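User: Can you recover a sequence for this backbone? Please restate the input before giving your answer.

Assistant: Of course. Working from this structure:
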């Protein structure tokens, strides 16, 4: 793993308190990830996954990250092509063709239309079983929010590939609901995409988020390049701007749901073998996240008052979403990927279930595992829209 990347959290910076044990303890409850339940017809399933780079999903990998047999399919030239085990289409099929798949840290440059087209092809190229059974799955559309900031998202070689999110929507979603996908004007690092879904009874804005990771590296003004503090400072600003965006939407009648890599483990239950507290600024960042995003309304403050739906639904259960590839599985992990519902969306009962697919197989070539949530938008409308 190359160092110097913005990952969550940087494994090399965890404070060392003692020599590692010969057999370091593993996190409990990692052996049997819970599969999502069967869906009812009026419920939408959302997946979210920090994939740590799109490349392994688009080309034949040198190393097989999944413990599965290579599948082969004939092409127009009569030869056989290997379907990569880390197939986006395979993921969608394996999980029952979900309505939405949010990807974070795709590492695609804004002007790299070739890779963007490859993603669109990958999510719609039939799997082997679709071809052999002649039963085709649904089609999907991909929407990208990629970095345009020349000073803060340049990557290791100045090519702007370090961040970026992609929202993959099942095509029939645009027939069943009024759908719009947009970015926000305060982010140019490719960290925020907003999926707006309208029915006759509900308006919901679902955020695809790759949150800022706090570090001591400088943060520069996106327009001038002048240093404006460090990445810790930008993280706090990111929390404030995200909070304001959500509150503005709620005042306009929208329900709010946040999904993705928040780059914050909420409390001691969410870090193994322990919560990351060094350097001290991470404690400050966590407190700020609670105040602006998870707290606020209950304490009479001006925060969003969001609900961490995993923690609310699973109480004290310890499961994790980030697993360092530099360490043995289950020995160092954190829960930094999750869904946060606005208070009103939670009180209305729109969130029906959620889960974490915490297995090495589901992690694939990433250092995060996928998460999912089921959302009910009251009733199924037929509102035509251009997606």
């Amino acid at each position: 793993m190359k160092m110097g990347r913005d990952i969550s959290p940087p494994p090399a910076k965890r404070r060392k308190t003692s020599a590692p044990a010969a057999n370091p303890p593993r996190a409990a409850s990692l052996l049997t990830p819970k599969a999502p339940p069967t869906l009812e017809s009026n419920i939408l399933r959302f997946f979210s996954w920090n994939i740590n780079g799109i490349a392994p999903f688009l080309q034949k990998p040198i190393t097989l990250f999944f413990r599965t047999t290579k599948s082969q399919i004939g092409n127009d030239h009569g030869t056989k092509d290997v379907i990569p085990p880390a197939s986006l289409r395979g993921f969608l099929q394996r999980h029952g063709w979900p309505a939405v798949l949010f990807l974070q840290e795709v590492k695609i440059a804004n002007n790299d239309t070739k890779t963007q087209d490859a993603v669109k092809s990958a999510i719609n190229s039939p799997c082997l079983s679709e071809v052999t059974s002649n039963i085709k799955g649904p089609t999907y559309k991909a929407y990208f929010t990629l970095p345009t900031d020349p000073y803060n998202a340049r990557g290791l070689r100045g090519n702007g590939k370090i961040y970026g999110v992609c929202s993959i929507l099942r095509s029939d979603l645009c027939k069943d609901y009024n759908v719009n996908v947009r970015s926000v004007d305060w982010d140019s690092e490719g960290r925020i995409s907003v999926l707006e879904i309208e029915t006759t009874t509900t308006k919901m804005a679902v955020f695809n988020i790759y949150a800022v990771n706090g570090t001591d590296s400088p943060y520069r003004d996106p327009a001038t390049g002048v240093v404006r503090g460090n990445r810790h400072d930008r993280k706090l600003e990111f929390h404030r701007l995200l909070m304001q965006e959500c509150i503005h939407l709620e005042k306009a009648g929208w329900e709010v749901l946040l999904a993705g890599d928040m780059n914050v483990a909420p409390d001691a239950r969410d870090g193994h073998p322990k919560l990351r507290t060094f350097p001290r600024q991470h404690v400050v960042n966590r407190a700020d996240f609670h105040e602006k995003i998870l707290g606020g309304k209950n304490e009479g403050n001006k925060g969003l008052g969001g609900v961490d739906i995993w923690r609310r639904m699973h109480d004290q259960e310890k499961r994790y979403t980030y697993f360092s590839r530099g360490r043995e599985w289950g020995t160092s992990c954190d829960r930094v990927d999750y869904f946060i519902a606005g208070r009103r969306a939670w009180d209305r009962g729109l969130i029906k279930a959620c889960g974490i697919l915490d297995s090495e197989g589901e992690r694939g070539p990433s250092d995060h595992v996928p998460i999912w949530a089921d959302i009910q938008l009251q009733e199924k409308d037929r509102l035509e829209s251009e997606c």
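That completes the design. The CA atoms of residues 28 and 318 lie 7 Å apart.
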